[in-house]
Amino acid sequence: MIASTLAFALVALPVALGAEYNVQVGAGGKLVYDPEYVSAQPGDVINFIFNPKNHTVTQSSFNTPCVALDGGAKTGFVPVDAGTTDLPIRQFIVPAGNAPLWFYCGQTGHCGQGMVFAINPPADPSPNSFSAFKALAQGGTPSSRSSPPPSSSDYVTPPAPHWVSATATVTYGGSVYTTTYTSYDGTPPPTPAPVPVDHKIIVGNNGVLNYDPANISASIGDTVTFEFHPKNHTVTQSSFLNPCQALELTSGTPGFKSGFQPVAADATEFPTFQITINDTAPIWGYCGQTGHCAQGMVFAINAVESGPNNFAAFLELAKRSGSPSASGTAPSGTTASTAASSTASSGAIGFARGSGAGTTFGLALSALLALWV
Ligand SMILES: *[C@@H]1O[C@H](CO)[C@@H](O)[C@H](O)[C@H]1NC(C)=O
Ligand SMILES: *[C@@H]1O[C@H](CO)[C@@H](O)[C@H](O)[C@H]1NC(C)=O
Ligand SMILES: *[C@@H]1O[C@H](CO)[C@@H](O)[C@H](O)[C@H]1NC(C)=O
Ligand SMILES: *[C@@H]1O[C@H](CO)[C@@H](O)[C@H](O)[C@H]1NC(C)=O
Q1: What residue stretch is flagged as signal peptide (predicted)?
Q2: Among the three residues 141, 174, 208, which one is the final residue of a domain in this structure?
Q3: CA of 176 to the centre of ligand 1 (A)
Q4: Which helix (H) or strand (E) holds 182?
C-alpha cells in the first residue's frame, strides 16, 4: 500500500504541474507534425492529435530517424477516417532529463518524406539540430556534416552512417526468401554469393593485438571463422559510432559475441568462432579484453571504403575511445554523445490514449515509475 501510494504521488505531481502542448499529426492531409518540435520540461504533456490517414508517432534515435528505437515509445498505427471530427489523441509525458527525443511516422514512406518530430532538439547550427535530423530522415546530408576532413588536432566524430531500410528477395541455399535488411550508402545489393566461402580471420596473430585481416568483404551466405591465437581475446559485435561497446549496449540490437577465449602460449590447437553473413550492411567488432580495443584491436566486414564510415575512421574512433575525452564527456554536439544520451533516456516511455480535449490519463503506471524514480 505504501509503495503504491508513493508511486502515485511521484507520477501525479509532475503530470499535474506540467504544461500541455498540442501537436497536430498530418493535419490537412500533409505529412508533417505541426509544430515539428517543442521545447518542453520533464512532466509536460504532449497531445498528439491524429488527423485523417493512418499515422504513428514512433521514437527513434537521432542517427537512424526512420527506425524504431528499441524499447522506445510508440503509438502504433492510428487510422482515422476522412471526415472524422472527434480526433483521437495520444499523450506523451516528457521524461526526466533534458536529452533530445526523436520521433517519426512509421507509415510506409512518410518518414523519408520528412514526417519527423523532436522534443528539445539543439538549435541550429548544431549537427544534432531538428533540421539536421529531418535531413537525415530524408536521406540527405545536413550541410553541417559535409565539412572538410578535420586535422588530427581538431578531431570531429565522423557522421553517422546513412542508412536505408530495404526489402529484397534473395535466393539462397535452394530456397527463395524475402529479407528486410539495413544498408548504407554505397553497399552492394543483398546478393548471395554464388558459392559461399569461408573467410578466416586470425585473432591475435603472433601475439599482436589485431585481427588478421581486419577489414574484409564477404557476401551473403559466406561464413567468417575467427581463429583465436594465444592470449585471451574476444570477438564482440559493436557499432560504427561506438567501436568498443557491445552492440546491444548502444543500439538495443543483440550482437554476436564469442566470449573470452583464453589460449595458452604454447597451444597448437586454436578455438574458433564462426558467424554467417546475412546481409551486406557493414559489420563492426572489437576485442572485449581490457584495453585491447583502444589499442586498435577492431575489425570490419563490408565497410564502405568510399564513404566517411570506412575502416580507417572506425579504427580511429576505437583508438580515441581510450582517451579521457571519449570515456567521460564526449565533445558536446557530437553524434556519439547524442546517440548515447538519447538511448540512455529511452527506457520505458509510454503513450497514453485519449480523445477529445486530452483529459484522459490512461497512464501505464509501471512505465512511468521508471521515469520518476
Ligand atoms: C494502417 O497502416 C498499417 C501499415 O501500413 C496497416 O497495416 C493497417 O492495415 C492500416 N490500417 C487501416 C485501417 O488502414
Ligand atoms: C580472460 O579474460 C577475462 C577478462 O579479463 C578474465 O575474466 C578471465 O579470467 C581470463 N581467462 C584466463 C584463463 O586468463
Ligand atoms: C545471421 O542469422 C543467423 C540466424 O538468424 C543468426 O544466428 C546470426 O547471428 C546472423 N549473423 C549475424 C552476423 O548477425
Ligand atoms: C580496407 O579494405 C579496403 C578494401 O580492400 C582498402 O581499400 C582499404 O584501404 C582498407 N582500409 C584499411 C584502413 O586498411
Answers
A1: 1-18
A2: 141
A3: 27
A4: strand 175-184
